[in-house]
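Quick one, tokens below:
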């Protein structure tokens, strides 16, 4: 089993940079867990809820992530060198399982909770330790002395192996093992150029703006730009949260660290995410595309913007003849509890969808429905019949 896992990891590394066959270990990309609002401008992280984190405590020292389909060690293995961390995972027997391994950078970043800080974890699930960083299995491209590590503040970066205490440094780099519950699948092409100014990520199923906005914007203006973007007749674009943004990063390439075959003008820039730093709310997270580190800056600083929509395979069939966001056909917009529609008649059917394609209502009397329990975010109202169209609505 150990040899099979090692081959899987090598396969992932060798193919990630090409954009071709890729071993997919996570079923879905979880949200950041950010639930608080930090601005009245629509489009921040907590305005969207696609795959909220949900963990199961198995009672045997292991945690199951129901979104990614990975199993994690509940209490990390403590401080050690990267070499010992690799050996530790390979030798670990926990919950009667022997196929533990070091997580990749993307896997390790997936369990962080960006509503929390120090540590940026769900501490009702993962036991708090003295860890400042957690090792991953990924090395920095062209420099094997540096290893990607997530940190307790919520970021990820490339660090010298010598920084940890056991290697003569001063910082606490810990190990947390992971294992695959299901056999990883192979995605033949990481990205697909849709030929219409958009790129589909076949690993996460999100659709991205192919050419990032040429100007730099403050964080608030980045939210506005993304929310008002019309591209390929789609209006549900948004500023990505920090996990979505980091999912574009390829740890096997640098300068830039995002595939320029598909994102040709990405360059070496700092890209805003929609996620706020919860303990310093005047700052927001960004990804720096030189190596792919995530860190934060004050929101009044101007950085680059690339927009996302999705999940693409669920929403694409809903948006026929999409109208403007502030359409008066359906009101109020934004709404809080109820929705009224001016196109009610004997033949029209009103359908109401979440941003990821779930049908929430179908009928003729939507004004009688109470939607107060829905999370804030973008929704779609579709009218069938002679006057058929779809409009975007915002839930406050």
């Amino acid at each position: 089993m150990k040899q099979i896992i090692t081959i899987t990891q090598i396969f992932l590394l060798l193919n990630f940079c090409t954009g071709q066959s890729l071993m997919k270990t996570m079923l879905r990309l979880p949200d950041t867990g950010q639930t608080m609002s930090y601005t009245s401008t629509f489009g921040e992280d907590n305005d969207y809820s696609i795959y909220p984190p949900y963990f199961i405590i198995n009672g045997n020292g292991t945690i199951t992530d129901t979104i990614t389909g990975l199993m994690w060690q509940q209490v990390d293995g403590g401080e050690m060198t990267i070499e010992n961390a690799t050996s530790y995972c390979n030798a670990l027997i926990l919950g009667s399982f022997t196929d533990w391994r070091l997580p990749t950078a993307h896997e390790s970043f997936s369990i962080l909770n960006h509503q929390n800080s120090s540590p940026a974890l769900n501490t009702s699930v993962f036991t708090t330790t003295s860890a400042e960083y957690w090792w991953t299995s990924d090395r920095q491209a062209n420099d094997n002395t540096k290893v990607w590590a997530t940190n307790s503040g919520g970021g990820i970066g490339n660090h010298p192996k010598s920084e940890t205490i056991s290697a003569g440094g001063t910082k606490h780099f810990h190990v947390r093992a992971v294992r695959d519950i299901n056999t990883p699948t192979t995605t033949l092409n990481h990205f697909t150029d849709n030929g219409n100014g958009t790129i589909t990520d076949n690993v996460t199923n999100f659709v991205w703006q192919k050419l990032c906005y040429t100007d730099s914007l403050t964080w608030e203006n980045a939210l506005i730009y993304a929310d008002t973007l019309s591209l390929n007749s789609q209006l549900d674009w948004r500023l990505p949260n920090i996990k979505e943004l980091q999912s574009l990063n390829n740890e096997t390439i640098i300068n830039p660290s995002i595939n320029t075959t598909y994102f040709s003008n990405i360059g070496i820039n700092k890209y805003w995410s929609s996620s706020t730093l919860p303990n310093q709310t005047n700052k927001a997270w960004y990804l720096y595309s030189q190596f792919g580190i995530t860190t934060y800056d004050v929101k009044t600083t101007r950085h680059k913007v690339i927009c996302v929509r999705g999940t693409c395979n669920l929403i694409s069939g809903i948006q026929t003849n999409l109208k403007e966001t502030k359409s008066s056909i359906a009101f109020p917009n934004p709404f809080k509890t109820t929705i009224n529609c001016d196109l009610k008649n004997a033949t029209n059917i009103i359908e109401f969808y979440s941003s990821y394609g779930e049908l929430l209502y179908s009928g003729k009397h939507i004004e009688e429905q109470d939607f107060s329990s829905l999370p804030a975010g973008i929704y779609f109202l579709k009218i069938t019949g002679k006057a058929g169209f779809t409009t975007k609505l915002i839930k406050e």
